[in-house]
Amino acid sequence: MKKIRILSIDGGGIRGIVPGIILSYIETQLKEKTGDPKASVGAYFDFIAGTSTGGILSLLYVCPDKNGNFKYGAKDALGIYLDLGDDIFELSLIKQIQSLGGISDEKYSELELENALDQFLGKTTLGKALRPCLITSYDIGNRQSFFFSSLNAKDEVYDFLMRDVGRATSAAPTYFEAARIKSVFGAPYALVDGGVFANNPSLCAYAEARTINFSEVLNNPEKPDKPSAKNMLIVSIGTGSVKRPYTYDEFKDAGMVKWIRPLIDIMMSGNAETVDYQLKKIFETLPKKHCQDYYRIQPKLINSNPEMDKADKANIIALQEDGFLAVADNKILLDEIVDKLIENA
C-alpha cells in the first residue's frame, strides 16, 4: 500500500513566508524529478492541515480553478505573502492610537486581510477542495475547538466559503477582530485563531487522518483506509523559532498587560514543541522502516524579526533570507521528502 502523505503548517503571521519558501523548493524538485511542469504541493499531498497563516497557505494549495485543477502552486501562494503582507499588517497612526498598540482594541483592521482572501479565494467553498484538508479555529461562543473539515463540508450544513475559513483561522487575538462568519447553510459562528490551542496542527492532522477512507476519497485503491502511523508520511513545517528568554527579574511582578504578548508567544511555541514531542514518540514505536517517516522542520530565524506582524519590506526580505537558509540547512531532508512523496504518489 502507498503511504498517506500529510502536510501540516504552523501558524505565525507574516512568518508564513518561511514555510512558503520551503514548500516552493519541494515543489520545484517535484517538477524536476517527475518531469511534470504542473506538479504542485497540493497534488503531491493526500491531506493538508494548517493553523492561521498555515491555514491560509493550506487553502491556497487545495483551491480549484474553474477547470477543477489546482489553482495555486507553492510559488503563487508565496507571492501573495510577498506582495500583500505589508498591506495586511499596515498600522495606521489612528488605529495605533485607538488600540494602544493592541491593548484596548485589536491592533489592525481586518479589511486588508479580508480583501486579500476574497481576491484569491473568492466564492469557492471548502467542500470544493481538491484534497482533504483540516483548518483549525476556536469557537469563542461555545467555548470549544472548531475544525473546518473539507470532507465534512460535502454537506452544506458544515460547508463554508474558503475566504471565511481563512479569516477565522487567522483571527489572532489582539491582532485582528474575531471573525463573525456563517456557514453555507446560514449558521453563525464567532471564531478566533486556531493558534490559541493548536498552533502546530500536526497531531490534529494525524487524528483526523485515522478516520478517513482514503482509497475512496482519493479514488485510489493503493491508498489505505483509516491509516495508522506506519501508513503515514507526515511533513510538519514550522514558521521559525527564536527562543527569547523571559527573565525572572523582568516578570516576577508583571501584571496582566505585561503578560499578554509573552503568553501568546509561550503558548504558540509551547504547543508546537509538545506536538512535535508527541508525534516523535508515536513514530519511535514503529519498526525501523517506518519510524523515519515523520519530519519536523522548524527553521531558525537569524536575519528576521520574529514578530508575526513585522511585515515591512526590510523584514519581508529578511524572512526570505531565513527561508533560503532553512532550505540549505535541511536540503538532504527535503530531497528525501521529495523522493518519498513521489514514491507514494
Fold and architecture overview:
This protein has 14 helices and eight strands. Helix 1 (17-34) packs across helix 14, helix 3 runs antiparallel to helix 5 (111-121) and helix 5 (111-121) runs antiparallel to helix 6 (162-169). The termini are close together. Strands 1, 2, 3, 4, 5, 6, 7 and 8 form an eight-stranded mixed sheet that branches. It has helices at 17-34, 53-62, 74-88, 93-99, 111-121, 162-169, 195-198, 202-209, 214-217, 248-251, 256-284, 288-291, 313-329, 331-343; strands at 4-9, 47-50, 133-139, 144-149, 179-182, 188-193, 232-237, 294-297. It is globular, with a radius of gyration of 19 Å. With 345 residues, the chain is α/β, with parallel strands linked by helices.
Which SSEs are present, and which pair or pack?
Elements: E1 4-9, H1 17-34, E2 47-50, H2 53-62, H3 74-88, H4 93-99, H5 111-121, E3 133-139, E4 144-149, H6 162-169, E5 179-182, E6 188-193, H7 195-198, H8 202-209, H9 214-217, E7 232-237, H10 248-251, H11 256-284, H12 288-291, E8 294-297, H13 313-329, H14 331-343
Parallel strand pairs: 1-2, 1-7, 2-3, 7-8
Antiparallel strand pairs: 3-4, 3-6, 5-6
Helix pairs in contact: 1-3, 1-13, 1-14, 2-6, 3-5, 5-6
